[in-house]
Design brief:
17 helices; Helix Hairpins; TIM Barrel; four-stranded mixed β-sheet; Ubiquitin-like (UB roll); about 425 residues; alpha/beta
């Protein structure tokens, strides 16, 4: 049996999260905090329906979806309010891993091939309300869609049979454990969403444990080593060095016992053993500054763990990003040559100039003149690259590209775009 995913759903309407497609009862006035809550409690992915009823509210919904995608580490699937290829593009550019075409609308069916060829089959979901919609468009779905989303939980088994071997995701109402297990045992079922999941949102990991006990294979982190293979210190603990997954910055150091290690694997949240309190503690449980584990690596002596994490907020209880912020000594070093680090450092200087203007600063001159001046400079520098490329001397083009990138970063700061946004988007292409 394939691993099954537990996927909460957020129904966006007028900038708030409501109960369902037909039920506008308020669930949460802050969809971003709700999304974080789902992720921190064990969600494997997130499904978001945009239920906006105007162009203005649609753009507002896209802004919310973008903010959710930026903050979450789990996959996000966007659905709802898709009328043309541009809407699929906006969902994907907002950060969604996949976007859904509503097959109850003929216009969505007609653009399936076009959007699939444009963005890739792996990005497209066919959203259906019945097995008949699958049967009527089976060849199209198989050729151009990565999976099927069933929003009406009628004839789930028949729909799964019709989509097989393609994966099926289904929105389920609140139901008994026996019925949930029955659905999850369908071979090509990708995962479940809807009220069945959101009703258990605070206890998703407990739900996963119950499902596993009943023979359902659930998505979990798996260790290649058993705890007994690690060499522990005299207190029976394993030291853990924690590093930022994106920047490689060392954040903190803590300890694990066996229970903390197993809890980390179970929840995906870094869990440690407190020597002072003699108890487990989940990083972020009090502060909200969770650490989502990306990898665990053991050293050659098997006595120290390296954890790479996505850090929410800051790592240190002092409010500093890292616990290692007090310089003991520092030797003069050569200029940083890590490209991403250089980009980030320059970006931060530019951003600081915008927040804290400096008299005589060229950067501030550009910000003061506004977006039109910035765009004019970006265009001019792009042209300079073209001219320099005709010169056999490569030094000139290096200079022009550097000049261009600086002005692009000014534009990025002006528009609120970060290097993380850019690198994450590039990684999806």
């Amino acid at each position: 049996m394939k691993e099954k995913k537990i996927i909460p759903c957020i129904y966006l309407f007028n900038k708030i999260a409501v109960k369902g497609l037909q039920d506008r009862t308020l669930v949460n006035a802050d969809p971003l905090s709700l999304a974080k809550f789902y992720e921190n409690n064990g969600a494997d992915a997130l499904l978001i329906f945009d239920m906006s009823d105007s162009d203005e509210s649609h753009e507002e919904a896209l802004d919310i979806i973008k903010s959710i995608c930026m903050e979450l580490d789990i996959p996000v699937y966007g659905a709802g309010n898709v009328k043309r290829m541009e809407d699929i593009k906006k969902l994907l550019y907002a950060g969604c891993n996949k976007a859904a075409l509503n097959y109850s609308k003929q216009g969505n069916i007609e653009i399936t091939e076009e959007v699939s060829m444009k963005f890739g089959q792996d990005k497209i979901i066919a959203c259906v309300a019945s097995v008949d919609e699958v049967s009527a468009n089976k060849e199209l779905i198989e050729s151009y869609c990565d999976m099927v989303l069933l929003v009406n939980p009628v004839k789930v088994h028949d729909t799964a049979a019709a989509t097989s071997p393609q994966p099926l995701m289904v929105c389920l109402p609140e139901l008994t454990l026996d019925k949930m297990i029955n659905v999850l045992q369908i071979e090509n079922l990708y995962g479940i969403s809807g009220e069945a999941v959101t009703k258990n949102a605070a206890e998703l990991n407990s739900l996963k444990n119950i499902l596993e006990e009943n023979g359902v294979k659930i998505t979990r982190l798996q260790s290649r080593f058993s705890w007994s293979e690690f060499k522990l210190n005299k207190d029976g603990l394993l030291p853990v060095i924690v590093q930022d997954y994106k920047t490689d910055e060392v954040l903190m150091m803590a300890y694990m016992n066996r229970e903390a290690f197993e809890k980390t694997l179970e929840t995906g949240l870094m869990t440690y053993f407190s020597r002072s309190r003699q108890s487990l503690w989940v990083k972020g449980e009090t502060s909200g500054h969770y650490q989502h584990v990306q990898s665990l690596t053991i050293d050659c002596d098997m006595d120290t763990m390296l954890a790479k994490v996505i850090q929410t907020g800051v790592a240190c209880h002092t409010g500093n990003k890292t616990c290692f912020f007090q310089t003991v000594m520092e030797k003069e070093m050569k200029t940083e040559d890590n490209p991403l680090r250089v980009f980030e450092d320059v970006y931060e200087v530019i951003r600081d100039r915008k927040v804290n203007p400096k008299e005589g600063s060229y950067t501030n001159y550009l910000f003061d003149k506004g977006i039109d001046k910035i765009l004019k400079k970006v265009g001019e520098e792009a042209t300079e690259i073209v001219i320099a490329a005709k010169n056999p001397n490569s030094n000139e083009i290096k200079y022009e590209i550097s000049d261009f990138l600086y002005h692009v970063m000014v534009l990025m700061v002006e528009k609120g775009v970060t290097w993380t946004d850019i690198t994450e988007d590039l990684a999806k292409r």
